[in-house]
Amino acid sequence: MPDMPSEGVYVQNAVAEEQASPFKKILGVNFIIFLIYYVIALLLIQKLGFLLFLYPIQALINSILGIVYIFKKDSIKSSAFFLAAFLLLLVGFGACFIGVAGFF
């Protein structure tokens, strides 16, 4: 009969899933917000250059929240906000470049 995993393995997996949940939630909410104003800029304003002003503000807010959570000693939320800021700058620059280049 194969060895069954001990109860400690299940506890470790539950703790890992609990810690990953805020990380996924923070990144998900940030990109949903980005997607909402991306679609608004695309459909209503029809200029993606408008994103040039919005996504850096959102990235700045995420960076400030990352610093706040460093002082609160919550490393998971802090790293999630910093990663969200970095990814927003990366994706936002690409989206803005597409808008300025006239692909849409």
Helix-strand layout with pairing:
Layout: H1 7-45, H2 51-71, H3 75-101
Helix pairs in contact: 1-2, 1-3, 2-3
Structure description:
The protein has 104 residues and is mainly alpha-helical. The chain has one domain (23-101). The protein contains 3 helices and no strands. Helix 1 (7-45) runs parallel beside helix 3. The termini are far apart. The model has no long low-confidence stretch (mean pLDDT 77).
- Report the major sheet: none
Q: What overall form do the CA principal axes indicate?
A: elongated
Query: How many distinct beta strands?
Result: 0
Give unreliable regions as ranges.
none
Rounded average pLDDT: 77
**How much of the sequence is in beta strands?**
under 5%
Share in helix: over 70%
Span from first to last CA? Answer: 61 Å
Order of helices and strands: HHH
Number of helices: 3
Total number of distinct structural domains:
1
Alpha-beta content class: mainly alpha
Computed CA radius of gyration, to the nearest angstrom: 19 Å
Quick rundown:
This protein is mainly alpha-helical. Helices cover 84% and strands 0% of the residues. The radius of gyration is 19 Å and the shape is elongated.
